[in-house]
Amino acid sequence: MKAPIKLEEIALVLLAFYLFLSLDYAWWWFPVLFFVPDVSLAGYLFGQKAGALTYNVIHHKALAVVLYLAGSLIRFPGLQLAGVVMLGHSSFDRALGFELQNNPQS
User: Fold this and answer.
1) Which of 50, 60, 84, 101 makes a 20 to 30 Å CA pair with 24?
2) What's the rounded Cα separation, in Å, for the pair 87 and 89?
3) CB neighbours (10 Å) of residue 29?
4) Which residues contact 22 (CB under 8 A, 6 or more apart)?
5) Cβ distance 34 to 88 under 8 Å?
């Protein structure tokens, strides 16, 4: 992955943490919850197709944004928290070179 894209992804991790700080949670919740989206890898226990699907859904940044905005609109901080953690984690994964998975055809 090229350096400008990695920098962009790191900026999104920082944005996620900044948005997290606007929520009413202790700062340490962010690092505690940061790797929770990797639980989606358990989908691989049910095969490559299920694993790729669960990974892609949970690591999709659009879903993270939708959760954060929905939480903002209905004033539900738990959704905002889920959104910023997912955004930060997904961006961190992309900065490390992990991409969304291809869905196997079988």
Assistant:
1) 60
2) 6
3) 13
4) none
5) yes
CA angle 2, 6, 9 (to 5 degrees): 145
Q: Please answer whether residues 101 and 51 qualify as being in contact, where contact means their C-beta atoms are separated by less than 8 angstroms.
A: yes
Angle of helix 77-95 relative to helix 3-21, nearest 10 degrees, comes to 160
For the chain, give every domain's residue range. Answer: 3-27+36-95
Please spell the DSSP secondary structure of 6-48, one letter per residue.
Answer: HHHHHHHHHHHHHHHHTSSS-TTHHHHHTTGGGGGGGGGGG-H
Confidence of residue 100 (pLDDT cuts 50, 70, 90): confident
- Give the per-residue pLDDT at 1: 63
Mean pLDDT on 94-103? 86
- State how far Cα 12 lies from the chain centre: 10
Q: Which helix (H) or strand (E) holds 57?
A: helix 48-58
Q: Please report, as a single letter, which amino acid is at residue 91.
A: S
Cα 11 to chain centroid distance, Å, stands at 14
